[in-house]
Input
Amino acid sequence: MRAINRIIDRFCAKHRRFGIPNLMRYVVFLSAAVFLIFLMDRTGGLLYFLYFNPTLIMRGEVWRLISWVLIPLNDNILFTALMLYFYYFIGGTLEREWGTARFTIYYILGMLLNIIYASVLWFVLRSPVYLAPNFLNLSMFFAFAALYPDHRVMLFFFIPIKMKWMALINLIFFAYSIISNIVIGQIASAFLPIIALLNFVIMCGVDLLQNLRPYSVSKTRSTINFKKASKQARKIYDERNFRHKCIICGKTDTENPGTEFRYCSRCEGYHCYCIDHINNHVHIR
Output
C-alpha cells in the first residue's frame, strides 16, 4: 500500500493539473437530472440505456462505461436528495484534503475496479453483473471516516454520531449484502462490496493504520514532533529572518504574511509546505 501511495503522490506532484475540479458536483447534478427523468419515465427505457453492458459497449455504446454511476437506487425523493447531498459533502471534503488529482484518481480507480470485475464475469464466466453506484460512493464514505473518524454528523437530523461509528454501521451493511447475495445464489454480485473496499484499502490503507494506533502513542509523537519543528523554525527565523518557508515554491511567512504554512506528518524530518502544496506533494522518505 505504501508503494502504491508513493507512486500516486509522485504522479500528483508532477501532474498538478490532472483531474476534474469539483468532480462530485458534476456527478451529483447529473445523478439528480437522471433521477428526475427516471420519475417521469415509467417504462424504464432510460435505465436500459444507462446500465453497464460490456456486449453493447463493444458495439459502440461507450457511454455505458460511465452512465452506470448515475443510476438512481430507488424512487424515494427524500432519500435520494439526502444521499446526493451527503456524497457531495464527502466528495468535496476529500478533494480539498487530498487535492483534485488524488481525489479524481480515487474515484476513477473505484470505477475501473468495478468495470474490470464485471467485464471478467461477463465474458469469462458468462455471469452478468449490473453495476450500481452505491458501493462506489460508500467507498468515499470509508475514506472520509478514515481521515476524520471523530467528525460528527446528525443521524436522522437529531442523533449526533461520529463518522467512525457510521463507518462501522456501513461495514455491517456490506457484510449483510455479501451474505444475502451468497444465500440467494448471486455469488457474482456478492463480491461487489469487496471491490469497493479494495479501492479504499489501496488508497487509504496507510491513513487507516495511522488512525488505528494507540491514541497516547500517536498523540505523544505528534506533540514531540511539533515542538521540535517549532524549535527548528525559530532557529531558521533568527538566522534568515523568516520562520516558515515552503520547500516547493519558496514562499516565506515574511514575504507572504497571509499565507498558511504547515508541516507534513507523513514526511520524514521537518518539512514545511504552504497551503497550496501541503496536500499535493511527494512525501519525503
